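Example record

One chain of 66 residues, shown exactly as stored in the release files.
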Amino acid sequence: MDAAERYHLTLAVDGRQVMHGWWGSEKTARRKFTRWIGKHSSMPGARITLADDEAGTVLTTWPDEA
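Predicted structure tokens for this chain:
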């Protein structure tokens, strides 16, 4: 895996992926995550997920898991 594509951010609406991006820096990816919430949180059924593809883990989601 290319280190520049380690952190994967996705926006899904009603379970369908509509936007995604990859970053090599966790700090940058988390900043983008926050921006995406600000831009897309009003969309009904929106879910934003930040994952570490190298580690195979989800770092955070919005809205939070209940």
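Notes: Residues 26-40 form the longest helix (15 residues).
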